[in-house]
Amino acid sequence: MAVFTPLTEPQVAEFLSRFDAGSLVSLEGVPAGTENTTFFVTTDRRDLVLTLFEQGEHEELPFFVDLLDYLDEHRLPVPGPLHDRDGVALHALADKPALLFPKLPGKHPKAPNLAQCRELGDALGRMHAVSRHFPGHRPNPRDLHWLLPMHHKVLVYLSPEDQTLMKDEVETYQDFFGNAPDLPQGALHGDLFRDNTLFDGDRLGGLIDFYNGCTGDLLFDLAIVINDWATEADGRLDAARHDALLGAYLARRPLNATERDAWPMMLRLTALRYWLSRLLVVYVDPPAHDLTPHDPDQFRTILKARLEHGALPLPEGGA
Length: 319
Description:
The chain is α+β, with helices and mostly antiparallel strands. It has helices at residues 9-16, 61-73, 114-131, 144-150, 160-179, 218-229, 239-252, 257-284, 297-309; strands at residues 24-29, 37-43, 47-52, 91-93, 96-102, 185-188, 197-200, 203-207, 214-217. Residues 27-255 form the Aminoglycoside phosphotransferase domain.
């Protein structure tokens, strides 16, 4: 059970009284969380999600509130946080930062079909088109600047072959991106795996869990999505899902020539980003709570497939 901070109904009822959201009817802990405590809250007027922030840099929470407010104002399918009667969204509950969100419809797609891939590509393309103008700033905490020092921490736990693979890749990225022209920037989701989306059938109910949100290369966000949504168990790309998602994305935000040139390398970099972050959780910085870490080998497999087979051709569209 991933409810790290238990709450009572009277606590939540008092918290709700600050908002124009109705009176508490029921409270249910959500077992699926890995970092934060989440409850489903039902009032006499609506269904809500209450999140208590257990880890991370709490001073960065206003950035996430501002980003979700901005995307919600631009009619993106995100859970814009509720603000209280004084216009404040971020509060404390049980001595933890707390936010209240509308509960969006749908479930996580375990095996996304082509219609769902098109829906996601369209939404991400729309999000990136407007996020280029988001005024907030939070540097990408998992970009190349992070890879350079952090990969040294896991080398001792790897086979000689994997040590060479990781070191060679990081050096290659440093050479490529250090000399490449700047890529288009904007606000990113930063972790848009299928379990951070909700689908009601083939209809996208929402993009959720923006707590890796940041500003940086829009291509970084897109590569994370393709490496999860369009990848088979053996690490190879599925052409139909790849083309469905990217075709819909490019109709909303075409890639420029620099992005198209960088695309194969960005797929590799984001694969290594997750291989490394999962290795760090297993060997260096285990979670504070008794949770099973994700398997690092999944993204080692994806990285090796990108090296062996390369990227698929991008659909037409772009500057």
